[in-house]
Structures are given as structure tokens and as C-alpha cells.
Amino acid sequence: TVELNLGAAPPPPPPEPVTLVAIDDKQMWRYENTGKDLATAWKEKAFDDSAWPQGAALLALESGTVVGNTIRTQLKRQSPAGANIITDYFRTHFTFSGNPATTKLQIRQQVDDGLVLYLNGTEVYRHGLAAGAALNSTTLFASHEGKDGVDGPFDIPSAALVVGDNVLAAE
């Protein structure tokens, strides 16, 4: 097979990926780990999470390392009242200066159990929970034992991305 290209320039290479939120000791996350059911307001961009503790990723119940990532913030398994904590809430801010209309977003995750991810209050990704399934503090996720590695990258919608301050929230 012969390919002949007369006068047309080859397409430009795709842009290099830029990490907006990293799993490292610099990216700080606010988290709520008391076992309360926060309903839905917590995921919105304007929610005040300043009273929540903060820690660096990776945030986890275990300690040490998990599949090559260091756990930098250890979470509690039980509430102050002694009940098992089923849902934890996480939020982090990042600044975006590009063009949201031409940006492709991808996520790499390290999740044990399940995850629902929100960008500026809009759900953009689920792991371990069927699309459209109700989510609350008693939701149980699909079997997860032995599946705590890094997955992805997965494409996520960028429609909620804005120039300036953005909030990535997860439960």
C-alpha cells in the first residue's frame, strides 16, 4: 500500500497532558470522615468546607502504601459514636487557565469500594456503583476486595470545567 499526501500538512500531534490534581504530598484535600450523611450541598462549588480537616492524597483507611502510592492521610473507620463509617466526603480546588470547550479531561483513580466524582457540583464519573443508582450514606458498593490498584485513565465530561477556580469532589 502506498499513501500519497499532496500538499496537505500532517495533523498536529495531540497536546501533552497536564496534571490538574495529583496524588502527591502537595495536593491538599478537605475531607469529612465522621459518618454524617451530608445529603447533596457538600459537592457544590460554593460549599464552605473550611471547617473540615485537610490532608494530602492518598487518603485511606489503611496505613503505609497501597499498590505503589503512599497513604499520607489516614481516615477513621468508626464515628465518634462507634458506628462504622460508610461514606467519606472529599473536596479539593484547582485552577484551570485553558479553554474548557477544547479540553479533554481524564482521571486515573485508586479506589477501594466505590466512588462518585463531581466537578463543580456536576456528577462526572462513577466507579463501583451503577449509573443512576441512588447514593446515600448506607449505599453498599460492588465487591471490591483485592481491587485497590490504580485504574484508568478514563475520559470524563468537561462541560462543568470553568476558567479559574474549580472544585473536584468525591464520595
Q: Can you put this structure into words, describing what you see?
A:
With 171 residues, this protein is mostly beta strands. Helix content is 0%, strand content 32%. The chain has strands at residues 28-32, 54-56, 59-60, 65-66, 69-70, 73-74, 89-96, 105-110, 115-119, 122-127, 150-156, 164-170. The strands form 4 sheets. A 6-stranded antiparallel beta sheet has the order 2-1-7-12-9-10, with no helix packed on it. The protein has a two-stranded parallel sheet with strand order 3-6. Strands 4-5 form a two-stranded antiparallel ribbon. It starts with 27 loop residues before the first strand and ends with a strand. The mean pLDDT is 78.
Write the layout of secondary structure elements.
Blueprint: E1 28-32, E2 54-56, E3 59-60, E4 65-66, E5 69-70, E6 73-74, E7 89-96, E8 105-110, E9 115-119, E10 122-127, E11 150-156, E12 164-170
Parallel strand pairs: 3-6
Antiparallel strand pairs: 1-2, 1-7, 4-5, 7-12, 8-11, 9-10, 9-12
Concise account of the structure shown:
The chain is built from no helices and twelve strands. The chain has strands spanning 28-32, 54-56, 59-60, 65-66, 69-70, 73-74, 89-96, 105-110, 115-119, 122-127, 150-156, 164-170.
Relevant terms:
single chain; mainly beta; six-stranded antiparallel β-sheet; 32% strand
- Characterize the quaternary organization of these chains: single chain
> What count of helical segments does DSSP give?
0
Q: What's the gyration radius in Å?
A: 19 Å
The overall strand count is 12
Unreliable spans: none
Order of helices and strands: EEEEEEEEEEEE
Mean pLDDT: 78
Q: Which sequence of strands runs across the widest sheet?
A: 2-1-7-12-9-10
Terminal Cα separation, in Å? 52 Å
The chain-level structural class is: mainly beta
3D shape: globular
Biggest sheet statistics: 6 strands, antiparallel
Percent of sequence in beta strands: 25-35%
Helix content estimate: under 10%
